[in-house]
Amino acid sequence: MIELKTAAEIDRMHVTGRFVAEVLTEVGELADVGVNLMDLEHHARGMIKRRGAESCYWDYAPSFGKGPFRNVICLSVNDAVLHGLPHSYVLRDGDNVTADLAVTIDGWAADSARTVIVGTPAPADERIIRATEEALEAAIAAAVVGNRLGDISAAIGAVAADYGYPVNTQFGGHGIGRTMHEDLHVPNRGKAGHGLKLRPGLTLALEPWFAATTDHIVFDPDGWTIRSADGSRTAHSEHTVAVTEEGPVVLTRREGEKKG
């Protein structure tokens, strides 16, 4: 069932979104050469506990996972792009790290992700990150009343095509509100003018992610971490967005964040 949120409910989601943005900002600043992924996990845990928020990932057990997820943040490195299970790994110069976080505060969820480069950036990595950020901004711009869900997917797919990146449609964006995952799957490629008509109060997590040279994925033995099938580098950008009469409202925008 698709639940349209009131203005007051969107405001409550915005409270959560601002906190998610704060955590991702700090995690991005802490990701440096010599830092262990578990240090980032525990930093996020501490922030969540102090805020009185609840992790949407802790005990998360969807059909594709291997047992309940027992961490509060997804941390994916290099060719890993989604659902990276935090583990003891010391970051190296040039690593790409994707941090994906979803929490609830007072019963309302927000979800966001960003990819950062540790140490010395490679131009190819900067390029794929920039592509996901531009695709996300294009998706947000398409999230207006009267458009259709396919317009959002088509906007993402168009940016990927411009950059020459293939698109996997198995995992994409989704509805969000009282829980992390609500009805509506938002593929990262689609047909403009097709799909559900966008109405005020619709809240979506939009999340373009690309691998440099493949649209195929593989799972790690941990049952969670998703990688590009050919080992090529990846990137992932995500925001929680509300469709309103006044236009799209980004609920997880980070302070000082550059638009794509």
From TrEMBL:
Domain of life (superkingdom): Bacteria
Record has Hydrolase as a keyword: yes
Pfam families with a match to the protein in the record: Peptidase_M24
Cofactor: Co(2+); Zn(2+); Mn(2+); Fe(2+)
Domain Peptidase M24: 12-245
Catalytic activity, as annotated: Release of N-terminal amino acids, preferentially methionine, from peptides and arylamides
Residues the entry annotates as binding a divalent metal cation 1: 100, 111, 238
GO molecular function: initiator methionyl aminopeptidase activity
Function: Removes the N-terminal methionine from nascent proteins. The N-terminal methionine is often cleaved when the second residue in the primary sequence is small and uncharged (Met-Ala-, Cys, Gly, Pro, Ser, Thr, or Val). Requires deformylation of the N(alpha)-formylated initiator methionine before it can be hydrolyzed.
Similarity comment text for this entry: Belongs to the peptidase M24A family. Methionine aminopeptidase type 1 subfamily.
HAMAP family given in the database record: MetAP_1
Oligomer status and interactors: Monomer.
Protein name (database record): Methionine aminopeptidase
Species this protein is from: Amycolatopsis rhabdoformis
Gene that produces this protein: map
